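Protein obstructor-E
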Amino acid sequence: MKTEVLCVLICLGVVTALTRKQEALEQNRRKVALPALQKKQQPTADEEEYEEDEEELSDQCPEPNGYFPDAEQCDKYYDCRDGKVIEKLCPDGLVFNDFSPQHEKCDLPFGIDCSKRPKLQKPQPSPHCPRMHGYFAHEDTRICNTFYYCVEGKYNMITCPEGLVFSEKTGICNWPDEAQKKGCGSRELFNFTCPKVDESVAATHPRYPDTEDCQYFYVCVNGEIPRRSGCKLGQAFDERTGKCDWARKIPECKDWYKGQLTDEELDALENPPPKPKPSGGHSRRKGAKPPT
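Predicted structure tokens:
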């Protein structure tokens, strides 16, 4: 298959699945074979963070055929064919996924261990994209719930659902306490602290109203970690029951949706029309027989 086609498949994240057992066997086999692919390189005191393009390659492959990771650079790998080696680079922002020497695959770095080969090629930045491919946090560190998805240096801006923030470690939206993004913790985002409670109450993950928004409330995980959650449209959080209910039934929130929804729209939300029963056809219930 030509290199151009492979690059397209790589960027699209096409994977040929292996069983976990097969993948483990491949990883163990390559741990033994990998030292043969060490590069001939003179270390220097002022070694740069990024690998230079011109390097001397070893003329030996761990195996005659396959795809093998570089020992130091996570986005570099080797294509071995009949014992001859070709050095390759993943598209900028992607790293080599060494799950099997039989498959040539570059992936986003999330979930791939690059701790033992941390070097990367020089970035090719563009507006909002520190590298050509990947998920990247907003430049303003105070904006926690917005991030960029970059492909070929072109970006799409994405906003997390309410109450979640972008996690630079996982590349997805997550709860603030799990994302652990500096300046984007629960206290900074919500200005809410879980009240002190005893162990029996803490075990129930108590809920508290958002005093500024009837539709939302806070769940205190183990009585300590606040997570903001919400009720569906037309509903509000009832502090007395600890559940969501129609806003017009809760005295302190009965007018919350005025100016947002009309009474007719609220009526339609509270009393949706029944779903029509399917007409025609035979019953599929067990034991039912078609009419004769």
